[in-house]
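thread from #wetlab-drylab

HS: before we spend reagent money on co-crystallization trials with iron/sulfur cluster, can we at least see a predicted complex? here's what I'd submit
DV: go for it
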Amino acid sequence: MTDSSHLAFTPEVEAATRPLYERLRDVIPEVEWPVHAPLIARINELKQERNAVLVVHNYQVPEIFHTVADYTGDSLGMAQYGADTDADVIVVCGVRFMAETAKILSPEKTVLLPDMDAGCSLAASITGEDVRKLREQYPGVPVVTYVNAYADVRAEADICCTSANAVQVVESLGSDRVIFVPDGYLGRYVATQTDVEIIYWEGACEVHERFTGEELRNYRSDYPDIEIIAHPECPPDVLAEADFVGSTSGMIKHVAERHPERVVLVTECTMSDNVAVEFPDTDFVRPCNLCPHMKRISLPKILRSLENLEPEIHVDPDIAARARLSLERMLAVGRGPGQG
Ligand code: 13P
Ligand code: SF4
């Protein structure tokens, strides 16, 4: 165990982190920087010592996203990066199903999740037993699981998908009917994009299900020029108001390509702070729906994880071997068009 309790905002740390802060001053109050900077400096040192990489989801706070990440992106990108890295240690700054993905694809590596209680309402909505029952109910119909599910569910499925490739994955199976779990709204969105019949599971993301079509119509009447970009975990009446629908990285790519004057990203609200740093000329209207699970990850917890090499993610080897097949089938399909 190492001890970082002596960390201080010394003149050296101040000087070394000043350029970083200059980029972030619009999204991080100056008064907070002396708290973050020593942690950031020590985390970046420890990453070298441990041969570790930090894989960071788009919903993580700017003081993590812009300072200590080796990779930032959506669930699919995190999975692809985790599968390819040579590091000995992968620290997943996201939620538990993402850390399970990393462990399943890299069983020989140490995979750390700085807070084991970082869950997900979608992943919690279904078990492997539920999938077995669906198979009995619909014999011969293939099962696609959104990757926002735990390893036992993925082990029972034929293939995984993310929001970036759900339509391509469903169509890759060559079946006219598909069971889609656990996100009922994503399933409904996929059904609008394909002729394949979708049998849904009624799970929902507790963040995206809170948006309403009325809220977006109000944005449009307040700002007639606004570009509305939504995540497909949102309900259908929300997606009906959107100019573009995509995964978190697909949304960022869309902003990068179109440079709208004003935009609303209809998703977890921290992402707007992260993206605003890259696009200072775009006005981000920011609804605030936070994911309490993503927000469990913090700089002090990341530091503790790297110091102590825990908490470590473990997946039962038999379940992991079967879940790996459904992940590998997904990775072979790749990313959907326009999705970053
Ligand atoms: P993506 O980043 O893959 O779009 O997923 C969004 C999400 O809710 C992850 O928890
Ligand atoms: Fe799960 Fe929604 Fe949070 Fe993503 S944003 S981790 S889908 S609860």
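DV: The two ends are 40 Å apart (CA to CA).
HS: ok that's useful, forwarding to the group
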